[in-house]
Amino acid sequence: MGIALLCVVITYDIICQWSKNFRKHMQNYPENMQIPETTQVDVAIPGWHINGHGNGCRTNFNLSYMEGAGRTVGEDIETTWAGTNQLAPSVREMGPAARHDTLNDQWNGWNFRKIVGFRTAFFWLFNSSPYSKPFSIRNVVFKTLQRRFHIERPTI
Questions:
Q1: pLDDT in tens, 84-140
Q2: CB neighbours of residue 44 within 10 Å
Q3: Contact (CB, 8 A) for 8 and 39
Q4: Residue 143 DSSP class
């Protein structure tokens, strides 16, 4: 069979409208592509598009308010467009197979560069974390200064 997912989060620019008939439309898909009724499906509008919606959508479909979504933007796929735009003059002249291969090569390269960049990004994130060594050094300096200028507080 496969893996049973307990929860799925779907982001889409107009999820506020698209999600209204989600379960009904799901019945039109082949059985192996359907999300089971037992899977909780949460929907949200991605971070860059949420401000184009009204207050109701900003309240009900905002990723920032969704439990378990963390600090997700939900628009990673759109960041590849800038790199793909330069291919437009070439791929528009190609046949379907060549276009498919060229775009696949572009996106595979994009993903490779992104994964290689994780090392630098995670190193930076780790070092800027409140639990990292630089923070600990700042904490030691703060506590040293705090002891020098100690103010007696009454105990209750």
A1: 888 999 999 999 999 999 999 998 998 898 888 887 877 776 666 655 555 566 667
A2: 24
A3: yes
A4: H
Nearest CA to 89 among 99, 100, 101, 77? 99
Helix (H) or strand (E) holding 44: strand 40-44
Q: How far, in Å, CA of 61 to CA of 87, rounded?
A: 34
68: left (phi over 0), alpha (psi -120 to 50) or beta: left
Task: Tell me the C-alpha distance between 129 and 114, whole Å.
Answer: 21
Domain extent listing, the chain: 1-75, 80-156
d(CA 125, CA 50): 26
pTM: 0.56
